[in-house]
């Protein structure tokens, strides 16, 4: 029971920069009134999903309708919307599935994979994907992430859409500092220093080079520094990981980030960037519209650059087929349509999430969006933190408290990384 509870808490934390909708009840017409598709067919599939708002709810029903009317295999998908409810969706899904009453297919978060696979609830997709004509349309790294989440060499989760962290920057500040967009990790560190500016000559910093997130959720951008030196989440005690941590401490101690960084969370780092207090910060396409609204053309993005290693955090919403489904081949037709077909186009264009389909990524809609471009560039090396029973506490408590102590000089970087390693893998 402890393990199940821990996994649910991990899901609630999930990708901490992403919000989800809430609600109280499920309905095949959608909890916010979207009418479900009821096209006739030889095979009927139930699909459980959540939607962040009424617009997305209606969109999903339109996608379902389009699939039902255009597939030539007699497949009818009936969409049933359930509220995300702070992660409660996954608990509802698990309870239904373990009791034999779950759907054929459902939207899914990677953080739930160990719980569901441990209970043999998910269909193995290896053979389906191996024989799938669109297999190569999805980056191999994405399949690797699906496998990593399940802790095996098999795939139980079908890719759908992602959110990939990148670096926001202000072109005008870069111009003032006389620098170009960094192409290497070392150049990135230099850019942080060079864009820390005293703009009025009063001896005080007016612009900090980087908006560091030291509060909960900061482990994701922090992970890029660790990997930049060749380290990894798998061995936080390694010499390379320690070097990455030292870089993180250095930019704080040298005054290249706001002094409040140890307690700055998502709202603070975004506010600092939008107010002009920082020249760079890390987030994803979910905030790009408000950045453009604030700065117009004076905001852009680049993928976190490569050093001895390279990594950025990926948030996700995927799909799964349940082992209990009597129509797995038809179910795969549906999840494939969402992954690389018309459903992928419609959903990602409307929601602003990053498509997993290379074909869709190459469409003008995405190619002409500088933030999407940074996201797509990062997809080949994006990843997730290890999904373990300890992850919830590590993310919410251990990481922010331990890293804050290192930034403030109360712990050495070696001691810090030893604690982080031991607490994640205990």
From TrEMBL:
Claim: Magnesium is one of the keywords in the record: no
SUPFAM superfamilies: Periplasmic binding protein-like II
Keywords assigned by UniProt, alphabetized: Signal
InterPro entries xref list: Bact_solute-bd_prot1 (IPR050490), SBP (IPR006059)
Residue stretches in coiled coil: none
Signal peptide: 1-26
Signal listed as a keyword: yes
Pfam family, one: SBP_bac_8
PANTHER family: ARABINOSE-BINDING PROTEIN-RELATED (PTHR43649), DIACETYLCHITOBIOSE BINDING PROTEIN DASA (PTHR43649:SF12)
Protein name as annotated: Sugar ABC transporter substrate-binding protein
Annotated organism of origin: Lederbergia ruris
């Amino acid at each position: 029971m402890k393990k199940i509870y821990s996994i649910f808490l991990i899901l609630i934390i999930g990708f901490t920069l992403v919000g989800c909708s809430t609600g109280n009840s499920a309905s095949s017409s959608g909890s916010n009134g979207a009418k479900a598709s009821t096209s006739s067919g030889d095979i009927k599939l139930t699909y459980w999903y959540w939607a962040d708002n009424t617009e997305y709810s209606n969109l999903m029903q339109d996608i379902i309708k389009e699939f039902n009317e255009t597939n030539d295999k007699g497949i009818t998908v009936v969409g049933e919307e359930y509220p995300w409810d702070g992660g409660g969706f996954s608990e509802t899904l698990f309870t239904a599935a373990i009791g034999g009453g779950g759907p054929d297919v459902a939207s899914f978060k990677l953080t739930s994979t160990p719980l569901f696979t441990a209970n043999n609830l998910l269909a193995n997709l290896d053979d389906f994907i191996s024989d799938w004509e669109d297999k190569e349309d999805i980056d191999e790294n994405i399949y690797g992430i699906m496998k990593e989440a399940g802790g095996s060499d098999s795939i139980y989760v079908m890719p759908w859409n992602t959110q990939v962290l990148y670096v926001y920057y202000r072109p005008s500040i870069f111009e003032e500092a006389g620098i170009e967009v960094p192409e290497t990790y070392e150049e990135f560190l230099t850019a942080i220093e060079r864009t820390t500016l005293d703009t009025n000559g009063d001896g005080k910093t007016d612009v900090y080079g980087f908006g560091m997130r030291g509060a909960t959720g900061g482990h994701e951008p922090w992970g890029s520094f660790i990997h930049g030196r060749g380290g990894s989440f798998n061995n936080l005690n390694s010499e390379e990981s320690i070097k990455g941590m030292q870089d993180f401490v250095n930019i704080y101690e040298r005054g290249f980030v706001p002094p409040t960084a140890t307690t700055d969370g998502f709202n603070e780092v975004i506010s600092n960037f939008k107010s002009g207090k920082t020249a760079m910060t890390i987030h994803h396409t979910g905030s790009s519209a408000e950045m453009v609204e604030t700065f117009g053309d004076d905001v852009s993005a680049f993928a976190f650059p490569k050093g001895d290693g390279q990594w950025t955090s990926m948030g996700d919403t995927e799909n799964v087929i349940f082992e209990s489904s009597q129509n797995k081949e038809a179910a795969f037709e549906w999840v494939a349509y969402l992954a690389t077909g018309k459903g992928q186009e419609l959903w990602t264009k409307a929601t602003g999430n990053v498509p997993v389909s290379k074909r869709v990524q190459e469409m003008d809609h995405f190619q002409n969006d500088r933030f999407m471009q940074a996201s797509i560039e990062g997809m080949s090396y994006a990843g997730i933190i290890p999904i373990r029973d300890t992850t919830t506490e590590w993310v919410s408590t251990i990481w922010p408290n331990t890293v804050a102590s290192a930034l403030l000089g109360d712990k050495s970087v070696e001691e810090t990384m030893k604690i982080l390693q031991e607490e994640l893998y205990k």
